[in-house]
Amino acid sequence: MTDLLALDDVNVYYGPFHALRGNTLTVGEGEIVSLLGGNASGKSTTMKTILGLIKVKSGTVRFEGEDVTRASTRHRIKAGIASVPEARRVFPQMTVDENLLAGAYTRRDRVGITEDLERMRDYFPRLAERRRQEAGTLSGGEQQMLAFARALMSRPKLICMDEPTMGLSPKLVDQVLDEIVRINKELGVAVLFVEQQAELALSIASRGYVLATGEIVLKGTARELLDNPQIQEAYLGKAKKA
Amino acid sequence: MSDALLQVENLERHFEGLKAVDGISFTVAPGEVVSIIGPNGSGKTTTLNLVTGTIRAHGGSIVLDGTRIDRVDSARIAEHGIARTFQNGRVFATLSVADNIEVGMHSTLRANRPFRELSNFFLLRWIPLLGELFIAIIGTPASRREDKQIKNAVETEIHRFEARLGPRRDDPAYSLSYANRRRTEIARALALKPKLLVLDEPTAGMNQSETAEVLEQLLELKAEGQAILLVEHKLDLVMIVSDRVIVMDGGRIIAEGRPEDVRHDPSVIEAYIGRRRTVGGGDEE
Amino acid sequence: MLDTLIAGLLRGNVYALGAVGISLVFGVMNVVNFAQFSFFGLGAMLAWFFITTLGLPFWLALPLVLVVCAALGLIINISVVRPLAKFLPLAAMLSTYAVSQILDNASQIAFTAQFRVFPPVLPNSNLHIGNMRFGTSDLVMLSTTAVVMLVMSLFLKYGKVGRAIRATSQDQEAALQMGIPVGLVQHVSFVIASALGGLAGVFIALYVGVANPASGLNIGLTAFVAATLGGLGSLVGAVIGGFVLGILEAFGIHFFGDTSRQIIIFVILIVVLIARPGGLLGKVPLISTEPLTGTFLGKGRPLRIPRWVWAAAFVVLGIVIPLLRNDYVLITGTQVLIYAIIAAGFTVTAGQAGVLALGQAGPIAIGAYMSAALTMQLHFSFWVALPVAGLCAAIVASILASPIWGVKGHYISIATLGLGITIVAVIQLIVPQGIYNIPVPQWFGTALTTPTAYYLIDFGVLVITLLVMWRIRRSHLGKVISSVGSDEVAALASGVRGRNYKALAFAISAFFAGIGGSLLAHQYTYIDPTIFTMLMSLLVVTIVIMGGVSLPYGAVVGAIILIGAMELLRFTPELRIIVYGLVLILVVRFRPGGILVRNS
Fold it and tell me: Taking the CB of residue C13, how many other CB atoms lie within 10 A of it?
């Protein structure tokens, strides 16, 4: 299988703090991969590293075989990585349409952009209804859809989603997960997403990585991880009584 | 119910229309350890922020030891006896570990804070402020005695985390590791001698052995009779340390009870651990 | 009445243009850009130069001015602001002030400081409605602004880069993640802002009829207040703020006279900030994630200073220098010592409480005038007047500052800046002329008039100041004040009333500022309001930042370098300010924690 994205032995530091400890991770084309772990385990840092928002101390990040370790965020977006940031981060005082256009910033094909705008409206009818509304006034679920659509506007091959279900009610969480599967299936986009709730995440991902204090402690297919008795322990940080 | 240390009733808070905390009620008894669990965004931290006065409630009441505290600021709440830690650890970056803890003792001090009762009154608050200034520059025999007590108390708190904080006592907090910042924060909170200790994910970012260490310390505190309100993701720790567990989802309490009961409550499993779906990309209903 | 309204609109028009520039830059960079001030003066001077000296027609001169200003803006952003803004927005703010000083002085060297009559390129009283007269000039200005605003709003709404500017100012990190070139966006914003500043400068010259390189400061401050009023970062707010301020100011001047101008402006600012801490259209986060001022400064460890250094410093400063009996050195030394006293007292506010107050000239002025009044009117002895002046400065400044302690981040700096300017403006209103013949200190009947005597008095006061500051720093109170500066939310949760301690720290600093003012007054024996400028306030801040913001003894080192160095370059005042600017930029760039603080 060709790896769309490959992190090899990546180390990241925040000052003296060793935030990612030699992590190796791959995402194949059209694959859904989940990144699991507790708070401050390094999930968001991994995402930021992939997007080029944080400098890597050592190791390489490759996208479609190209070494992008030192490439700018902008370059990576152009190359086909898109981001659904943590807590959605839609531009609150811009309309839905303007948010979508911001997602297509790196593209130059006006016709294609207009087409995609139409496509997103078809794809997410709720957004079509609210196209002139300011994004800050949307509900949490709608904002999440907008963040998805905004990411898709760059015609990515890989979407990185940082906790797309955060702060959503269980019903909306279901919807969001369904949406991820739909995007993946219908558009063939690979998805790497961070999720706290292991079982939920593994219900849609084909593979997963479990992070703890900056290190990948477990990896495998969804089935393997679900069956692994360690997962609860590693992920929920079992507090053994000394 | 009157014997509750903390009594929260119909607490409400919304952010731009979104109900973060939607009419919840619960109690903490003296010496009791109560944990709040629930998925991210379920309103746990908001609840803690409301109880500690870091943000104001939009409705409901909070009573600590017979006094209503939902209308007063968080400094006053600290003086009433609630100390807290923050989700991502907020230490005073430029102060040393020892000085961080000393600041935590602020509300327990007398001789260093003459006329402190006046602190909340317009204009009159200058009397305690100038008093403090006088003591800082000149000092009184009583304040010098109290300074010694402060020193001892700080040592006691550092001693609680001796192996970790002992060697770093004079280092500025910004130079500490994440875990040590959390320890400093807990020590600072305990220095207040709180009736109720409020901890927001004290083990976030800690590895297993560090988590186990915190668990030990929490159990020690519990044995000392310290009432604790805890938000924590690591369920095993919660199960061991808690007398009672409250489960929140979407700003409401969806279950409450003894740890073992909550653990097996199906609605809890679904909300917190996640509904088990078919594996590997299968969707639907 | 209608005349006043028109005057207000014309002034508001200029303020709006300037404020939009300031807000635009703040939105995308989180930097308050004082360099914008200079573009007003520069725009006016350049236009004068192009029209009068080169004989170009107005319609050619105007775009040329815009191009020059835009290019200068780009250079400033690339060389100074952006590199600093990346890690220290507040340092960038201070360095923009230095840049504005450099620009003003460069322009003064190029065009000389005199007022130039601006050519009446357009008729300005050829039209009338009823009995109200106005000119083509006024119409052109208003309609140009209207066109500019329209183009700007279309550009921001529909232009690709315009949308990117909005996206960046709403959420910079998300913008980065969309592949928006944030650096480019910042350059473009800076260029637009600078061009707008130049345009506003040309307009103000057209309106007033004269131009002067230093004329930018007043308009700049007002535009800046307009931007703050509207909510920094909000462009609509900036326009509203500009016109509101222009009209209120015009009516204020109409009723209270021109001298009340600054007072009116800053009173409006402070009232608005109290009512809406984020400005009219701005938003303030519910729980600050990180204290803005606290983290900027004070990270890094103070260098360990061996005991013998203290003794040696005491001997050199207190014994060797007076023994030299070199008047030049001693006179320079008294300046250094007075600033050291003021700055050492200021460390508790700027360093410990984390309030980067930008208006210390206010309490300094109170101390100076109070001391002069006490000795001259009530015949107090200097030795009594000195502490009383300090107390008065502390009390008056505290009363005036009392409403602002709930204001956060940049806004508190801006509020204190306004406070300082207002205090001096009020003094000017009460005592418009300077005060002469302020009595010199007496010691048992002998007048102390020698430089050595002044030097020793100042040295004694400095030693006491340092002792007091050292006691405060080591006390429980000192730690509590530092906790407020580090993290106010956490301090509150520990039972520390942040506002009270910020107020106390400010009062302590104002006390020493007043003492410094009194010392100044009795040594100059002459004072007038032009001494207590914004430059003086920023000098105090810069000294403190140079030495290490929370270190009282650092203030001494900072004063020696800054005041000493500036005095040595006394023979060329213009060069002096340029050096000041460069020193500031270099320090915040390479030693952000201060000279006596190791970088962390």
Answer: 26
Chain C: residue whose CA lies nearest to A75: C179
CB contact under 8 A, B276 and A203: yes
The helix/strand/coil state of C184 is helix
Q: Is C181 on the interface with A (CB under 8 A)?
A: yes
Own/partner pairs, B26-30, CB within 8 angstroms, 24+ separation = B26/B246, B26/B253, B26/B256, B27/B1, B28/B4, B28/B196, B28/B227, B28/B229, B29/B3, B29/B4, B29/B5, B29/B227, B30/B3, B30/B5, B30/B195, B30/B225, B30/B227
Supply C558's token pair.
């900072």
Closest-CA residue to B233 (of B265, B270, B264, B273): B273
Percent over 70 (pLDDT), chain A: 92
CA distance C527 to C433: 9
Provide the Cα torsion C550, A15, C584, C196; round to 10°.
Answer: -120
* Burial tier of B155 (Cβ tally within 10 Å: 0-12, 13-18, 19+): middle
Q: Where are the beta strands (DSSP E) in C255-338?
A: none
Average pLDDT over residues C50-79: 93
Chain B, window 41-60: residues with a beta carbon less than 8 angstroms from a chain C beta carbon: 49, 52-55
Distances in whole angstroms, Cα of residue C54 to Cα of each of B260, C40, C47, C159, C210: 89, 20, 10, 36, 18
Could you tell me where the DSSP H helices lie in C231-260? 235-256
How far C7 CA sits from the closest chain B CA (Å)?
A: 41
Residue corresponding to tokens 């003459």: B114
Provide the shortest C-alpha distance from residue B86 to chain C (in Å).
8
| Max Cα distance, chain C (Å) | 81
Which positions of chain B have pLDDT values less than 50? 1, 276-285
Q: Any residues with CB less than 8 A from the CB of C316 and at least 6 apart, and which?
A: none
DSSP type of residue B118: G
Please calculate the CA angle C109-C115-C117 and round it to the nearest 5 degrees: 125
Which residue segments constitute the domains of chain C, with CATH numbers given?
Answer: 2-275 (1.10.3470), 292-590 (no CATH)
Instruction: Give the chains touching B; criterion: ≥3 Cβ pairs < 8 Å.
Output: A, C
CA dist., res. A216 & res. A194, Å (int): 13
Third-level CATH fold of A3-89+144-236: Rossmann fold (3.40.50)
Nearest Cα residue to C134 out of C318, C49, C9, C305: C9
Where do we find the tokens 């006024």?
Answer: C138
Cβ-based contacts of B55 with chain C (< 8 Å): 286-287
pLDDT in tens, C252-304: 888 888 778 888 888 888 888 888 878 888 766 665 544 333 333 445 677 78
The count of C-alpha atoms lying within 13 angstroms of the C-alpha of B225, restricted to the half-sphere facing its C-beta, is 4
User: In Å, how far is A204's CA from the nearest CA of chain B?
Assistant: 4
CB contact under 8 Å between A221 and B41, yes or no, is no
Residue C111 clears pLDDT 90, i.e. is over it = no
- Note the ipTM here: 0.93
Which tokens in the block code for residue A144? 């999440």
Q: Is C491:B86 a contact under the CB 8 Å cutoff?
A: no
Q: Does B133 touch chain C (CB under 8 A)?
A: yes
What mean pLDDT is predicted for residues C117-131? 79
